[in-house]
Amino acid sequence: MHSAPARPNTGKLGKKRRKYKRRILTLDETARVLARLEEPNKLVIETCIATGARISEVLGLKWKHVNFKDGAIKIEQRVWQQDVGPPKSESSRRILGIGDLVERYRARAAEDGADAEALVFQQKRAPGKPLWDSGVRDALHKAAQAENCDFPGLGPHSFRRANITWRQQVGGSAIEASKIAGHSDLEMTGEYTFVAPERQNELTRAIQAKLSAAGSKAERAAGQTQLAPLPDGDAGPVGGRSLADVAPATGILQ
C-alpha cells in the first residue's frame, strides 16, 4: 500500500492574532492624558506621537542625533531589553521631524548640559543607562486611568498607530506615512491605520454632500428643459410631420 505524497511546505504562516483589540485614544483623551504626565515621560510619549517612532528608538536617541536647526531627530539605534543596538531594520534608519517639540528638546539639552554621545533619556539613579520603557508605560497607564480612558494594549506603540492614522487624516499620503514609520511596505502601514467611526462619518458626509450638490444641479437642469409647444390645433402628426419633427430640440424623443 502506497502512502499519500507529502504536501509541499509553502512556508505560509497562519494569520497573526492580536492579543488586544486595536484601539487608539481620541485627540481629546490624548491631550488629557499628556497633561497628567511628568517629564521625562511626557516628552518621550509626545515624541512617539509626533514622529511615530518606536519607544525603543526614542530611548536610544543620543544628543548627536538631535538636529536643532532642522527640528529633526535621526534614528540610528534603539534600546532593546536595556541593550543599545542597531535599529529593527535598515528601513528603520530615518530622519523624523519633531515639529514644535524642538524647543522642548533645546530646553532639556540646556538643563542636562548635553554631551553629543550622551543619551537624551537617561535614568536619574544610573546616568549613562537608558530610561526604562516599563516606567514610561506605567506612568502612561496611571494617567489614562485617572482620565477614565485606559484600556488593555494602551502604550507607546498605540501612539505609533495614532501617528500613522492622524498623519493620513491631516492630508499625508499612505506612502509618506509608511516612510516615516519605517515600514518596508504599505501593507504594514495599512495594518497600523485605524479609521475611527468619527473619521468614517466625516468622509461619508463629504461624499453625501457632493452627491446632494450633484442632485440639486441635475434638478435645476431638468427644470430648465421644457418641451417646445406644438402649433395651434396640432395634436399629433400633421401633414406627414411627427412630434419629433416639430420639436427636435427637446432632446426627449430621439
Structure commentary:
The protein has about 250 residues and is mainly alpha-helical. The chain has 2 domains: about 25-190, Orthogonal Bundle (hpI Integrase, Chain A); about 195-225. The chain contains 10 helices and 5 strands, in the order αααβββββααααααα. The strands form 2 sheets. The chain has a 3-stranded antiparallel sheet, with no helix packed on it. A two-stranded antiparallel ribbon has the order 3-4. β3 and β4 form a beta hairpin. α1 packs across α5 and α7 (about 175-180) packs across α8.
Short description:
This protein has 254 residues and is mainly alpha-helical. It has helices at residues 27-36, 41-51, 55-59, 102-112, 133-146, 156-169, 174-181, 186-192, 197-224, 243-246; strands spanning 66-67, 72-75, 78-80, 83-85, 94-97. A hairpin with a 2-residue loop joins strand 3 (78-80) and strand 4.
The helical percent reads 40-55%
The pLDDT mean sits at 78
What fraction of residues sit in β-strands? 5-15%
Total domains, how many?
2
Rg (C-alpha, Å): 31 Å
Shape: elongated
CATH homology-level superfamily of the largest domain: Intergrase catalytic core
Q: State the CATH architecture of the largest domain.
A: Orthogonal Bundle
The secondary-structure class comes to: mainly alpha
How many extended strands? 5
What is the strand arrangement across the widest sheet? 1-2-5
